[in-house]
Amino acid sequence: DLATTFAQALNSSRLETLSLTTNTDLSDDFIANFIPVLDTPYLQELQISVLSLTPASASHLVDYLSSARCRLRALRANGNRLGLRGARAIVRAIHRHNFTLGKLELYANGLADPDPDESGETSASDDEGTRSGRALWQDSERELARALQRNRLLREDTEREALSLLRYARAVLLRPRNPTTFSASRALVPLGITIAEYPPALPFRFTSLPTELQLHILSFLAPTLSTAQRIRIYAYASSAATLPPLLPTLTSRGNLPDPSTLPFNGVPMGVGMLLRKRKGFASNDGVVTGSKYVAPGGGRKAEERARWLVMMRCDAFELEEDGNWGGADALALAAY
Predict the structure, then answer these.
(1) How many CB atoms lie within 10 A of CB 116?
(2) Strand partners, 18
(3) Residue 256: which pLDDT band, with cuts at 50, 70 and 90?
(4) Suppose 229 and one of 107, 204, 220, 225 were both cysteines; which one would form an S-S bond, judging by CB atoms 3.0 to 4.6 Å apart?
(5) What span, in angstroms and rounded, lies between the C-alpha atoms of 312 and 111?
(6) Paired strand residues for 45
(7) Ranges assigned E (strand) in the chain
């Protein structure tokens, strides 16, 4: 009950890193009750090293890594007793079904021990069995390296195309009630997209096309994204509720801020005004932090982009599968 309650609490949180390392009393019983309930898109790193796990836990980890519930970037399961067969099953699951993981650690899990069922040599000597086990794991290591590299490249393409698609989807799908007061910078500043990067005004002929054709043409700007990912971006871009609030205008009465309360000698700091930090004090300047990589020129804008990508579930590649649409995606499509 405690493991299930803990997993449900994580599902409603925004925790990104969970370390259960060296809790040897948890063992397989905890994994059997915790992993099947775990369903949070914000958890990026799970550390379950030295938990006395045996091959019985491998099946639960395989099911989790193969499902859409898993959004992990790193999994560390060192110092357990998963064995060669359990570790190879985890690698196969990542190769076939997982596109989010970028780091997997399975050190000191008895991977070099002989496995007669895997090697097919039931009467071989101990030395031959050991060499066979090492050879099998070396093959799995090469397969794992290719799968993790594939995931990293696909994630970079997915994130880049998602941000690019948002720029043009805003211009095409967002229909303001009063076009004369609409500001393109208001639509894109929250994600760090400057007005210089905003696409030029589209001809009226394009916006007069049926919505289905507009969405089909926009899909060519992001070929890596799945249909569900593009629909979520379309729904976000077409909603005026996703625009950030504006500061009060100078022409409005009764809403002017008191200059004495403003920072920087009365100069307001708000939307549309970006203050450059002094060199040497900028944070997250293209460095690796834990299991996450923050792009150069990070800081608040990079964090907002990362949160938006997670909200759109565009922080990892999604395999296109027929009939694998959620209820929210179906409603978004029906809205068009």
Answers:
(1) 13
(2) 46
(3) low
(4) 225
(5) 38
(6) 17, 74
(7) 17-19, 45-47, 74-76, 103-105, 288-289, 292-293
**What is the Cα gyration radius of the chain?**
25
Residue 125 half-sphere exposure, CB side, CA atoms within 13 Å? 2
The single-letter DSSP state of residue 325 is -
Percent of the chain at pLDDT exceeding 70: 65
**pLDDT at position 28, please?**
94
Query: C-alpha distances in angstroms, 136 versus 9, 109, 157?
Result: 39, 14, 32
Instruction: Identify the top-confidence range among 63-77, 187-201, 287-301.
Output: 63-77
Spatial distance between the Cα atoms of 42 and 38, rounded to a whole number of angstroms:
11
Computed over every residue of the chain, the mean pLDDT equals 77
Sign of the CA dihedral running 135, 141, 147, 150: negative
Backbone φ, ψ for residue 47 (5° rounding): -115, 110
- Tokens linked to 132: 């066979």
3-state helix, strand, coil in the chain (%, to 5): 50, 5, 45
Q: Kindly tell me if the per-residue pLDDT of 254 is higher than 90.
A: no
Half-sphere exposure of 1 (CA within 13 A, CB side): 0
Task: In whole angstroms, give the CA distance from residue 222 to residue 336.
Answer: 19
Q: What's the predicted TM-score (pTM) here?
A: 0.69
Amino acid identity of residue 316, one-letter, is: A
Residue 238 contacts residue 211 (beta carbons within 8 Å): no
* Integer Cα distance of 336 and 295 in angstroms: 34
Structure tokens at 126: 């101990």
Closest CA relative to residue 215, chosen from 239, 238, 198, 190: 238
Supply the pLDDT for residue 172. 86
Q: What is the pLDDT of residue 320?
A: 81
Residue labelled with tokens 């309360």: 261
pLDDT at residue 293, rounded to an integer: 43
Residues 6+ apart with CB under 8 A from 29: 3
